[in-house]
Amino acid sequence: MYYVLSAMVINWPLLGSLTTHISYGHEAEITVPLLNVWTIWWNADRALNGMSGYWNAPIFYPTVGTLIFSEAQPTSLIVAPVLWLTGNRALAYNLYQLTIIALNGFSAHRLLRRLGHTRWLALCGGTMFQILPFMNWQSGVVQLTTLFGIIWTVHSLFDLFTKEPTEAVGIPTRQPASDFSNKWLHPTFAGIAHPISGVGVWLGISYGLTYWLCNYWGLFLTALLIPSSLAFFSNKLWTFAFWRNVFIALIIASLMIGPFAWMQHRLSLEHDWSSARTSEMIEGLSAHWRDHTDSPWLTTTPWLEWPERERENAWALGGGGLKLLLVLPGAFAAWMRPQRRRWGLFVVIFGATALGLSLGPTVRISSWFPVFGGVCPYEFLMTNFPGFSLIRSPFRFALFVQVAAVWMSVEALDLLSPARWFVDPIAEQLQGLAGRFQLTMRQLFNWSDRKTTQAMFVLPLITASLLVTLEVVPQTAELYPIPSHRKLPAWVIWLRDQGEPGAGVACLPFPTGYQVSDYEQTTLWMYWGTFHGRPLLNGYSGFFPATFIAIKEGLEQFQQSNAQEGDAQQAPHFSRYLPDNPGLRLLNETPTRYVVMKRSFGTRDDVWKHPQTRFRWAHVASDELEQIDIYELPTLDDE
Asked: Cβ–Cβ contacts within 10 Å for residue 214, how many?
């Protein structure tokens, strides 16, 4: 319940507007959130139709397989009943976003408890995952906020390497139940030991779910788990039960991911997606190492930040200076606990690998390094790892750097936990300097007054953990008033009720640039398409089909006037299309049946005057309130 309430607190401006607004986080435009609203609707709509035609989403008409051009997010089906019952796209989207944030915190909490951390530290860790700076910075891209699939996969992987079937990692408490803060500041294991049976099933489901939630995270997580899992190497690898669970996990994950990966592979070859990812683009979207010291908002420790001046605030990938400082103490603390040594090594490799890969192709291994000298790790992945050649944003590996920093911060804070010092016989379980240090601590305090001594440790622990947890608190996200589903525009109603079923619709004006902001109107057309149900020639996604690009580039060719830049005459307008405009010609050659046009872009007189539309586009409907006209194009049979 805590994580549900905290998710609401984090998004408090949204609570009174769940049915009328959506959050676009800290994005500069509403484009991507509206795309995700449309995606949630499409998943719910196809579920009502037995998933028929799932891949052929109604955008980029008449291209097929268009759902895979962006994130399909089948996990959004969890809120499909909300959309079916209310028809409210905003409510479904908001509940999906809040559910993700709540699950992020709860899942992190359960993993930390699985590792043997106290409830207090698990609560702090769960909260840090809910307000993780990268996640909140990118919160407008809802698929990038899905941390719980990653956590479940790591949790299941940890269980896979557990030595005993019901092993609970950590040092069990032996103090009397009446001891100070037993519930919150000492580890208990009731109900958190995970049996090894079934771990293969959960590992397969968790990894498959991660890919469903966000293809990016599924691909990135794979690249990180391969080297970091070496930390768990043990005799467990030579047992039949281990490989049985690995086989089960592979089968389940393949069944979940296979259909999506196959469609992505087929369409990437058909549409030559790799050509859209130039080396200049990838390098431009790679992080610099100092970006990881720059937090997106004001922190309680600004003196710990050291960003490059020209990249300051533009590439804020830091999760907080305190957390970075606690990485080494956290690694030391984990190493001093035999039960968490492998975990600590796993996290260090996990975070270091993510840091290196976030720098993209801008970094190479030094030439003096044996075997791998001169190799660029990211280019190696692009060449040899399926799917990496289609990735355009290496900087997003920063999320995993922040995740690792949180895990290590919790380990470091555990050094202040009373359970660290008051569990017998802890001195015998530790070795070397740490053991002698703890023995000295025992001698310094009056053990006859045990509760008072424990209380002396509680205040520093709570103070330090709150400082680390609340080091970077996200700013309030912006809200966008989404058009009501109860008051549809007249042109939408006309297409829904009188338009030919399945007939393609082109909406003008087309975007005249390649920035995300240029497609904001396009995603609004897509939103209205969820109501009229006709496939659009328009569309927005991570990739674009060649036919769409050809039409778009043709429609961008306007006659230039001698007016000064910024003059109204220079604005895109239908009347400035040349008689032989290639975009209009290609549009006329498609099976598109209707054209929806804003009058601010072109009037009926403009359509009548142009030689490519004069005797071809027939005006059939008008929306005087929205100042929109609908034109009908002849079918191929009519011609």
From this structure: 25
- Measured CA to CA in angstroms, residue 473 lies from 9, 327, 494, 539 at distances of 12, 20, 47, 35
Say whether 336 sits in a helix, a strand or coil. Answer: coil
Q: Which two tokens stand for residue 432?
A: 């070397």
Distance of CA 624 to the CA centre of its chain: 40
Distances (CA, A) of 380 to 127, 221, 275, 368, 510: 36, 16, 18, 18, 38
Residue 558 and residue 584 in contact, taking contact as beta carbons nearer than 8 Å: no
Q: What is the four-CA torsion angle of 573, 579, 580, 581, rounded to 10 degrees?
A: 10
Which tokens sit at 63? 């291209």
What is the Cα 78 distance to its own chain's centre?
Answer: 17
Helix (H/G/I), strand (E/B), else coil: 506: strand
Cα–Cα distance, 184 to 180 (Å, whole number): 9
Of the candidate ranges 156-165, 261-270, 411-420, 590-599, the one whose mean pLDDT is the lowest: 156-165
Q: What element of type H or E holds 618?
A: strand 618-623
pLDDT bucket at 419, cuts 50 / 70 / 90: low
pTM, two decimals, is: 0.88
- What is the β-pairing status of strands 592-598 and 504-508? parallel
The contacts of residue 494 (CB under 8 Å, 6+ apart) are 621, 623, 630
* Dist CA 342 CA 212 (whole Å): 29
Write phi, then psi, for 152 (nearest 5 degrees): -60, -40
Which of the pair, 541 or 429, is modelled with greater confidence? 541
Give pLDDT, residue 169.
Answer: 40
d(Cα 369, Cα 635) in Å, to the nearest integer? 66
pLDDT digits over 565-594, tens only? 444 456 889 999 999 999 999 999 999 999
CB 381 within 8 A of CB 387: no
